[in-house]
Amino acid sequence: MTNWVSFYDFKHSVIYVNERHRDVHYRKIAQDIAAYVPSPAARMLDYGSGEATSADLIAAACGHLTLVEAAPHVRASLAQRYAANPKVAVVRPEQVEAMPEASFDLIVMHSVAQYLTAHQLDEILALFRRLLKPDGLVVLGDVVPPHLAAPYAALALLRFGAQNGFLGAAVLGLIRIFFSDYMRLRKTTGLSHYEEGEILTRLKVAGFMAARAEENIGHNQRRMTFVARPVTPG
Ligand SMILES: C[S@@+](CC[C@H](N)C(=O)[O-])C[C@H]1O[C@@H](n2cnc3c(N)ncnc32)[C@H](O)[C@@H]1O
Q: Which pLDDT score, from 0 to 100, does residue 178 have?
């Protein structure tokens, strides 16, 4: 396993301590994301959607939802899960790169920035700028600030487990993760962490006017969500 996409493509129980954790996680972020949908007709993109087991909640709130997933097995399982839902499309990153400009009203990328190099993040922000309608919105969620990210993530998981009936599994999951490929990849490939000001600057350079949202999407409130609108030249 040499990179984060292949890590996420592997059928594993490291990130989600059990199915209940996976499902309450995706339900919570789907509810939070749905709150950003600007209108029932909105065309929406979720970049790096992961298993997205509650994407039907988002699809119900918007006109059309495109899920972009780089990991082939995750993508195949998404395609199967939503095959009967005409409002959901599942695509590869290269397919979304080929889409025409101004295709979307809302673009969300949640819990992905930490797995990208700063250069990759800049390229994706430039892509979002091209794909977004002039009055559209980009939401960048779960951006991880530097310093004590791992202990805060562990505490947030335990709290989330206690609130949702999987505290025991969360404790075991934390022990498992310590000996997993996640820790190996963290050392070899690394994770990207950003201060609030760094993300705001990157969004500005990419052509957005942005602000940090009061609440992060999902269960870890130490991480940050940013809301960005395109700046129109002139
Ligand atoms: C923690 S999951 C996030 C899934 C979902 N958005 C969520 O919040 O639960 C990280 C996602 O980032 C994707 N990813 C990691 N590295 C990537 C890269 N270089 N390019 C595109 N996607 C990447 C993985 O395939 C995975 O779906």
A: 85
- Give me the domain span that covers residue 100: 4-230
Residue type (1 letter), 32: D
| Cα atoms in the 13 Å half-sphere on the side-chain side of 100 | 2
Phi/psi for 201 (5° steps) reads -65, -45
Q: Is 54 in the pocket of ligand 1 (CB under 6 A)?
A: no
pLDDT at residue 12, rounded to an integer: 63
CA gap 10, 180 in Å, rounded: 12
Extract the residue ranges of the chain whose pLDDT is less than 50. none
User: What pTM did the predictor assign?
Assistant: 0.96
Q: How many domains does the chain have?
A: 1
Residue having the nearest C-alpha atom to atom 2 of ligand 1: 50
Query: Residue 127 region, left (φ>0) first, then alpha (ψ -120 to 50), else beta?
Result: alpha
CATH of the domain at 25: 3.40.50.150
Q: How far apart are CA 67 and CA 91, in angstroms?
A: 6
Q: Which of 25, 27, 115, 160 to mutate to test the pocket of ligand 1 (most atoms within 8 A of CB)?
A: 115
In testing the pocket of ligand 1, which one of 1, 5, 17, 144 has its CB within 8 Å of the most ligand atoms? 5
Tell me the residue type at 112. V
Ligand 1: which atom is nearest the Cα of residue 26? 9
Is the C-beta atom of 63 inside 6 A of ligand 1? no
